């Protein structure tokens, strides 16, 4: 026979360990993607916030203009 001990050739145990390692890697990868998305969120908000303020100012100015025009007419 061979010089390798029989208990070191437990293929089921090795496959289980590999499957567990793959699952842990998938969890870490999913968590990494989630954290990266959260890290990008403030940058997107910082980019859109001035446009949102401008749109709000324009809408409120139009509303006030419409009220004043209706009162003067």
Give a written overview of the molecule.
There is one protein chain. This protein has one helix and no strands. The protein is 85% helix and 0% strand. The chain is rod-shaped and about 105 Å long. With 73 residues, it is mainly α. The relative contact order is 0.05. The chain has one helix at residues 11-72. It has one domain (11-72).
Low-confidence stretches: none
How many domains make up the coordinates?
Answer: 1
- Mind summarizing the main beta sheet? none
Q: What is the helix tally? A: 1
Give the overall pLDDT as a whole number.
89
Q: What is the C-alpha radius of gyration, as a whole number of Å? A: 31 Å
Question: How would you classify the helix and strand content by structural class?
Answer: mainly alpha
Q: Strand percentage, roughly?
A: under 5%
Order of helices and strands: H
Shape: rod-shaped
Distance between the termini: 106 Å
Kindly state the number of beta strands: 0
Helical fraction equals over 70%
Features:
single chain; 73 residues; mainly alpha; rod-shaped
Write the layout of secondary structure elements.
Layout: H1 11-72
Summarize the structure.
This protein has 73 residues and is mainly α. It has one helix spanning 11-72. The protein is rod-shaped, with a radius of gyration of 31 Å.
């Amino acid at each position: 026979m061979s010089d390798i001990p029989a208990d070191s050739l437990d293929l089921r145990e090795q496959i289980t360990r590999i499957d567990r390692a793959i699952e842990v890697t998938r969890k870490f990868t999913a968590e990494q993607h989630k954290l990266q998305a959260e890290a990008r969120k403030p940058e997107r908000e910082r980019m859109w916030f001035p446009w949102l303020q401008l749109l709000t100012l324009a809408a409120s100015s139009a509303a006030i203009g419409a009220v004043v025009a209706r009162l003067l007419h």
